[in-house]
Structures are given as structure tokens and as C-alpha cells.
Amino acid sequence: MRQRVRKGILVFSALMFPMTFFLLSPFVIVLSATQGVLNGSAMIFGFLLIFSVIGSRLFCGWLCPGGAVQDYISGANNRHWNSRWKNLTKYMVWLVWFSFIVFLWIHNRPLKADFLYFIDINTLYLIIYVIVMSIIYLFTLMTGKRGMCHSLCWMAPFMVIGETIADALHIPRFRLKAKPDHCVSCGKCSKICPMGLDIAEMVKSGRVDSKECINCLECVDGCPKKAIKFGIYKR
């Protein structure tokens, strides 16, 4: 039942993406910064960082429209796309992108806040939307399960930073916990993980706390022996 609800929310989020794209776009925040404006996407990204200190990456697994699109594209290519170097790419891309935004903010001071800045469906918006959706579609089709999340996502690093802050300060946050003695090594958790993580191996090691985990709870609900639990825990 929980997964039906989660997937239903993701479908709705994907359907609403043409409207919410204004508030999640990696381009609109740059265009706003050139005018010295803290727009809606800047505020949303800041909120996600703060929320992730407690909520980890729940947004990615339950609300992200880009993630929803990728989940359905994975029907055409469901191979796992997950490794240290593949995952590192998004941080390199994020560092360049975010550094440029900060430079623009500093260069165009004083900043003014406008949550609804640039929210207007026009030709430029349609071009930006088509470009971003094409990148999500083609990259996921070429790579596999949530390839964008692993390698190119501009939002994930904000939440990983939030998780890292929580762990460094010993703040309890949403996370999974393993019960290795319950595991029967069926491997079902690894097969159904939308991020292509080797959950089975992580459970055996007693640690299922990965920065790539999107807290979708697929593995929790799919485990026949309830070897994985979730809650608000310290590291």
C-alpha cells in the first residue's frame, strides 16, 4: 500500500512538472541570479538542504518529478548505474554550477527576493523545459536506473550536504537500519531498488546508510523477512 501511495504521488508530481519546473530549474536560478534575484528555485534548494538535515533524501524518493520520469524510463533500460566515479560526477557538475550562481549573486548585489520571478510560460521557458527534459530522458535511457540522480542531478548534492551536516553534528535523521540476522540472502531488495544499490550486501554488513539512498522504502516493503527498518536515528 505504501508503495502505491508513493508512486501515485510521483506520477502526480511528474504531471505537474511543467508548472513546478519554474521552482526546480537549474537554468531559471541562473537567469534570476544575473538580475540579482533570489528566485523560487533558490529558496526551494535552500529549503531542501535544511529539510535533509532531518528528512534526508525523502524528496528524491517521494516527490521529485525528475525521479518519477526516470523511474518510468527505466522500463526501457533497467540496468544498474551506480559506482563511486559515476556518483562523483554530479558533485563536480554541481560545484561548477553553484559556484557560478554564487559569483552572480555577489556580482549583482544587493539581492532581492522574488519567489515568483520568471514564472511565465513563454518561448524561452519552453526552450529551457524541452532541453532539460530531453537531457533527463536521453541520459537515463543511455545509462539506466536513475542515471541522472547518480551522475547529473543538480539538487541531490544539497541534500547530501544536509545529511552530512546532520551526521557530523550527531543530529538524528531519517535513515534505514539493517537487521542482518533476519536476512536470508534472497536478493529481492537489490533487484527492486530504483537506485540500483546492492542493498543485500549492505544488509549483510549491518549498514544500509548510503548517500545514494533516496529513502523510497522499496527495500523495506519488499523484504519478505523484514530485515530492514526505518526511522529517525543518529548515525
Automatic annotation (TrEMBL):
Question: Any stretches that span the bilayer, and where are they?
Answer: 9-31, 43-64, 88-106, 118-139
Q: Please name the SUPFAM superfamilies in this protein's record.
A: 4Fe-4S ferredoxins (SSF54862)
Is Transport among this UniProt entry's keywords?
yes
- Pfam families, A to Z: Fer4_10 (PF13237), Fer4_5 (PF12801)
Q: Which GO terms describe its molecular function?
A: 4 iron, 4 sulfur cluster binding; metal ion binding
The answer to keyword Membrane applying to this record is yes
Keywords in UniProt for this one?
4Fe-4S, Electron transport, Iron, Iron-sulfur, Membrane, Metal-binding, Transmembrane, Transmembrane helix, Transport
Domain of life of the source: Bacteria
InterPro entries reported in the protein's UniProt record: 4Fe4S_Fe-S-bd, 4Fe4S_Fe_S_CS, Electron_Trans/Redox
Ranges for domain 4Fe-4S ferredoxin-type come to 174-205, 207-233
GO cellular component terms, A-Z = plasma membrane
Q: What is this protein called?
A: 4Fe-4S binding protein
Q: Lineage of the source organism?
A: Bacteria, Bacillati, Bacillota, Clostridia, Lachnospirales
